[in-house]
Amino acid sequence: MAEKNGFNVDEFQAMVAAVQQQPEAGKLTFRASYAWKGGFAGDTRLETIEQLGQPIPRRFTLPGDHPPELLGHDYGPSSVETLMAALGSCIAGTYAAHATARGVEIDGIDVELEGKVDLNGLLQLAPVRPGPSGIRAKVRVKSGADDATLTELCEVTKHASPVYDALTNPVPVETWVERA
């Protein structure tokens, strides 16, 4: 089994070929639920990823909360921290996947993230957005590849990363309330 950048190359190529031959195989549905524990605290349970009508079971729970200085109990990372972690993870994984597809060896990827939030928006004290006003992501790559290749991979990643896309393009979110 040949491996590159943490991927089994044969499995990687087989997945790409399968999606090329059957584009519906590339359409995934992710399901999760959140259980509130009080204040800002709660648990997100990742349940399934569905592909071609078949569930891929997931068994992960992500705790969330704010630090005490921001009215939490430090039960887990805040939602904004989790969002930034998702972005960093998706950037690194997408970068590695596209490097693998191009035969580029990567020895390391670190993503440094910074986002700014104005609590005046969350607390509805001023007409400012409650979410991050921007996020900066510095991608540090350790590789023998030349700078042009690494920069090209970064550009491809910005167009291919699902989380990057979700943060840089409007995504419809439908929300409703039901009595429990």
Structural overview:
- The chain has 180 residues and is of the alpha+beta class.
- The chain has two domains: 28-77, no CATH class; 78-171, K homology (KH) domain (GMP Synthetase, Chain A, domain 3).
- Helices cover 34% and strands 31% of the residues.
- It is built from five helices and seven strands.
- The strands form three sheets. Strands 3-4-5 form a three-stranded antiparallel sheet, with no helix packed on it. Strands 1-2 form a two-stranded antiparallel sheet.
- Helix 2 (79-101) crosses helix 4 (147-160).
- The longest helix is centred in the middle third of the chain and has 23 residues, at 79-101.
- The protein starts with a strand and ends in a 12-residue tail after the last helix.
